[in-house]
Specification:
It is a single chain. The chain has 201 residues and is an all-alpha fold. It has helices at 2-8, 13-25, 27-50, 53-61, 63-82, 86-96, 101-113, 117-129, 135-164, 169-200.
Length: 201
C-alpha cells in the first residue's frame, strides 16, 4: 500500500486533472477519476510483479510512441479544460446527474496507461522489497498498490472537496484556466525532454 500511495503522490497532469474535476464537478468525480489512474497502476504493477515478458517487450518496443500518444491526449485535455466555461459545465452536470462517473474513470485509466514508465517504477520497487514470494503473496503485494493509490486519491479529493464549498463561479473560471495551463505546460516539458533524449541518445 505504501508503494501505491507514494507512487501516486507526485502531482503530475493526472493529479491536476483530478483536482480540477473535484472542484468543478464534485468529490465523487475527482475520486472516481483517481481510481481510474489507480487501476492503471494496478495493471502495470501486475505486469511488473509477474514479469509478463510479452507485454514488457511490447511496451519497451513502443515506449516512445505510447508516451507521445498519451502526451498529445493530455495536451488536448488541458486545452479543453482551459477553454471550458465552468458555469455551463455545472449546468450540464446537474442535468446528467451521475452519468459522467464511468466516463471520468475510463478517461483517466487510459490517460495513465499510456505512461509505461510506471511499470519500471513498480519493477524497481518490488525488487527493493525483496524476499521470496509465492503467487498469493505476490498478488497481495500488487493489490496493495491498488489500495494504496486509491487511498491517496481519496485523501486528496477529500481535502480539495473541503475548499470547494468556498468557491465561486469566478474562482472556478480561473482554476480552470490555471489547471489547463499547468497540464499543457507539463506535457510540453515532457515532450521536450523526450525529444532531447531521442536526439542525444
Amino acid at each position: 500500500m505504501c508503494i501505491g500511495f507514494t507512487a501516486s503522490v507526485p502531482l503530475g497532469p493526472i493529479g491536476v486533472l483530478c483536482i480540477q474535476r473535484t472542484l468543478s464537478k464534485g468529490r465523487r468525480y475527482g475520486f472516481v477519476s483517481g481510481v481510474g489512474a489507480a487501476t492503471s497502476d494496478f495493471v502495470y504493477a501486475l505486469v511488473a510483479g509477474f514479469s509478463v515478458s510479452l507485454v514488457m517487450e511490447f511496451v519497451e518496443a513502443h515506449q516512445q510512441i505510447l508516451i507521445v500518444v498519451g502526451a498529445l491526449v493530455l495536451l488536448a485535455l488541458g486545452l479543453k479544460i482551459f477553454f471550458t466555461n465552468p458555469a455551463k459545465q455545472m449546468r450540464m452536470q446537474r442535468r446528467k446527474r451521475n452519468s459522467g462517473l464511468w466516463q471520468n474513470y475510463i478517461s483517466t485509466f487510459f490517460l495513465t496507461i499510456t505512461n509505461p514508465l510506471a511499470m519500471f517504477l513498480f519493477l524497481g520497487a518490488f525488487t527493493l522489497v525483496g524476499g521470496e514470494r509465492d503467487i498469493y503473496t505476490q498478488f497481495a503485494l500488487i493489490l496493495g498498490v491498488l489500495l494504496g493509490a486509491s487511498l491517496w486519491w481519496l485523501v486528496l479529493t477529500m481535502l480539495v472537496g473541503i475548499f470547494r464549498k468556498k468557491l465561486t463561479i469566478r474562482r472556478l473560471y480561473y482554476i480552470n484556466k490555471t489547471a489547463g495551463a499547468i497540464i499543457v505546460a507539463l506535457v510540453v516539458v515532457a515532450l521536450f525532454m523526450e525529444l532531447f533524449k531521442v536526439i542525444f541518445s
